[in-house]
Amino acid sequence: MNIQSSPTESLNIALTTVIEPLDVARLFPVDQPLEVELGCGDASFLVEYARCHPGKNFIGVERLLGRLQKLDRKGRRLGLMNLRGLRIESAYFLQYLLPPHAAAALHIYFPDPWPKKRHRKFRLIGGQFPALACTALASRGTVYLRTDDADYFEQMNEVFGAAVEFKSVETPAALAVITTDFERDFNAKGIPTLRAAFQRRD
Question: Does the global pTM surpass 0.85?
Answer without folding.
Answer: yes
